[in-house]
Amino acid sequence: MQYVIEDIDAAELARRRAIYVPLTEAVRDLIDATIRTEVDDTVITQVRDEIAAATAKLRAEQIVGSYGLRKTPVGDSVSWGNVAVGLRNAIAPPIMVESSPDGLHWAELTLGAAYEGPTGLVHGGIGALILDHVLGATAKSVAPSFTGTLTLRYRRGTPLGTLRAEARVDRTEGRKVIVTGTLSDADGVTIEAEGIFIRPETS
Amino acid sequence: MQYVIEDIDAAELARRRAIYVPLTEAVRDLIDATIRTEVDDTVITQVRDEIAAATAKLRAEQIVGSYGLRKTPVGDSVSWGNVAVGLRNAIAPPIMVESSPDGLHWAELTLGAAYEGPTGLVHGGIGALILDHVLGATAKSVAPSFTGTLTLRYRRGTPLGTLRAEARVDRTEGRKVIVTGTLSDADGVTIEAEGIFIRPETS
């Protein structure tokens, strides 16, 4: 995993979070409103112009290209552009993976209208994104690794709403870390997943 | 597949596209700028307030819940909330699946900073979302069906930029439609996929 060091201390990291998280949450809310609005066309056009003007202000100074993986000198992750977990990426729910000493990794998240596939259900590919990310984070708790194979079994539709993803390392075989996991709603498992993650030869 | 009929003709559909596509594109552009901006904190806070105000205008009238599957009386899809293909969903690249008479289904799309996982690369879960959607659309060309199993083999990282997804029906076995496909960049295949899609018993 290649990353760059963001040379900031904990106080500066907290300051930046306090600035960027509210901006990203406002954009996330706008995504939802853009899907669900029923206001008149004139308002839609006016709002479009306002958003374009706001975007131009943000683009007055910006990085070239994508955000990339970043860490602080003490190892805190600042990968805020990441589509699954990034605090500055309004596409990200964001997923926050937690873990317990017994090796369980999990994330709880609430998905609204912006993640829909079939009516009222989470898009199957979003279920795949969540499980790829949570299983990948679980594999990385053993060693840096990339997804080799991911197999998803869809037991039933996953309703929009509050969900929980869980994963554990099942076993390791040479350079392979095999991780299993599930996505569930309040009524139980909706998707089962198995991932084979590969450690690079250099690790 | 349950859907509702949006009782509009082709002219009204075109009129709505002309209003909503520019709004969604403006929001998509804002998502990218939110990740990449380096402007001062005061500007960030000001933009956040402007976005919140614009969102409030959109929310003055809105549907309850999610957008759902919709079609016009002549069968045009109006599933504009869908996270993969929705014209009103700023998360969607959007994917536009095309097909040829020989059974090939494909989509070309360009992914920027908002879809990043590892530095400079598309998140593996976004590759999964794209392939789930394109393989699913391919299966639906045979019969209405839901994803049963999806297997993804990651050959190498998928660079951000212009990509092409392709899929074909491999075979059918009873209620199962087996579809294979790939995601590729200019240098060739990055992810291979196989999906088993299940026709409901009633179809």
Radius of gyration of chain A: 19 Å
Largest contact between chains: A-B, 86 and 86 residues
CATH architecture of the largest domain in chain A: Roll
Write the CATH homologous superfamily of the largest domain in chain A: Hotdog Thioesterase
Q: How many separate domains make up the residues of chain A?
A: 2
Average pLDDT rating of chain A: 95
Give the SSE order of chain A as H and E letters: EHHEEEHEEEE
| Biggest sheet descriptor of chain A | 6 strands, antiparallel
CATH topology of the largest domain in chain A: Thiol Ester Dehydrase, Chain A
> What proportion of the residues of chain A is helical, as a percent range?
25-40%
Question: In terms of structural class, how would the helical and strand content of chain A be classed?
Answer: alpha+beta
Distance between the termini of chain A: 10 Å
Q: What is the percentage of strand-forming residues of chain A?
A: 25-35%
Query: Which oligomeric state applies?
Result: homodimer
Walkthrough of the structure:
The structure is a homodimer of 203-residue chains. Helices cover 31% and strands 28% of the residues of chain A. With 203 residues, chain A is α+β, with helices and mostly antiparallel strands. Chain A folds into 2 domains: 1-94, no CATH class; 96-198, Thiol Ester Dehydrase, Chain A (Roll), CATH 3.10.129. Chain A has a 6-stranded antiparallel beta sheet with strand order 3-4-6-7-8-5, with helices on one face. In chain A, strands 1-2 form a two-stranded parallel sheet. In chain A, strand 6 and strand 7 form a beta hairpin. The longest helix of chain A is centred in the N-terminal third of the chain and has 27 residues, at 10-36. The radius of gyration of chain A is 19 Å and the shape is globular. The N and C termini of chain A lie close together (10 Å). The mean pLDDT of chain A is 95. At the A-B interface, helix 1, helix 2, helix 3 and strand 5 of A face helix 1, helix 2, helix 3 and strand 5 of B.
